[in-house]
UniProtKB/TrEMBL annotation:
<dbReference type="GO" id="GO:0006228">
    <property type="term" value="P:UTP biosynthetic process"/>
</dbReference>
<keyword id="KW-0067">ATP-binding</keyword>
<comment type="similarity">
    <text>Belongs to the NDK family.</text>
</comment>
<feature type="binding site">
    <location>
        <position position="115"/>
    </location>
    <ligand>
        <name>ATP</name>
    </ligand>
</feature>
<feature type="binding site">
    <location>
        <position position="105"/>
    </location>
    <ligand>
        <name>ATP</name>
    </ligand>
</feature>
<dbReference type="GO" id="GO:0006241">
    <property type="term" value="P:CTP biosynthetic process"/>
</dbReference>
<keyword id="KW-0808">Transferase</keyword>
<dbReference type="GO" id="GO:0006183">
    <property type="term" value="P:GTP biosynthetic process"/>
</dbReference>
<keyword id="KW-0418">Kinase</keyword>
<dbReference type="InterPro" id="IPR036850">
    <property type="entry name" value="NDK-like_dom_sf"/>
</dbReference>
<dbReference type="InterPro" id="IPR001564">
    <property type="entry name" value="Nucleoside_diP_kinase"/>
</dbReference>
<dbReference type="Pfam" id="PF00334">
    <property type="entry name" value="NDK"/>
</dbReference>
<keyword id="KW-0547">Nucleotide-binding</keyword>
<protein>
    <recommendedName>
        <fullName>Nucleoside diphosphate kinase</fullName>
        <ecNumber>2.7.4.6</ecNumber>
    </recommendedName>
</protein>
<dbReference type="InterPro" id="IPR034907">
    <property type="entry name" value="NDK-like_dom"/>
</dbReference>
<feature type="binding site">
    <location>
        <position position="94"/>
    </location>
    <ligand>
        <name>ATP</name>
    </ligand>
</feature>
<feature type="binding site">
    <location>
        <position position="12"/>
    </location>
    <ligand>
        <name>ATP</name>
    </ligand>
</feature>
């Protein structure tokens, strides 16, 4: 299969507290992506500073840190054809008010500061984020018996 790649998808503390994570898992599974890593975790400040390195100079960064450390995060890794691009499409626009109905943010979020979910924005960033949140032995590399029913 061409364009087979992995993406990092994290259900943020608001999504975990609101119980939205089963729907996220369902949507990615039903779409045909293979779950290769999953854990419920509490993010510490050093991890988040690395993850959001590009946002550290933004005025909202302190509140972002506080929000992301406020509760558990469901960190996942998904694999499949164009997983990064398709994952971002499934999430919807960063600002939920600009997200189409049917997307995760369009269905479950209103405020940008509580937008439920994070998804890698490029293949390069997906690789960095996966390595930041998961040790190699936490990722399962197995052959999906459903692949022939999903891909040509």
């Amino acid at each position: 299969m061409s364009n087979n790649e992995r993406t990092f998808i994290a259900v943020k503390p608001d999504g975990v507290q609101r119980g939205i994570y089963p729907e996220v898992l369902k949507r990615f599974t039903q779409r045909g992506f293979k779950l290769v890593g999953i854990k419920l975790t509490l993010a510490n400040e050093p991890l988040l500073r690395t993850h959001y390195a590009d946002l550290q100079q933004k005025p909202f960064f302190p509140s972002l840190l506080s929000y992301m450390m406020s509760g558990p995060i469901l960190a996942t890794v998904w694999e499949g054809k164009d997983a990064v691009k398709q994952g971002r499409a499934m999430l919807g626009a960063t600002n939920p008010l600009n997200s189409a109905p049917g997307t995760i943010r369009g269905d479950f979020a209103i405020d940008m500061g509580r937008n439920v979910i994070h998804g890698s924005d490029s293949v390069e960033n997906a690789k960095k984020e996966i390595a930041l949140w998961f040790r190699p032995e936490e990722l399962v590399d197995s052959k999906s018996t459903l692949a022939s029913w999903i891909y040509e």
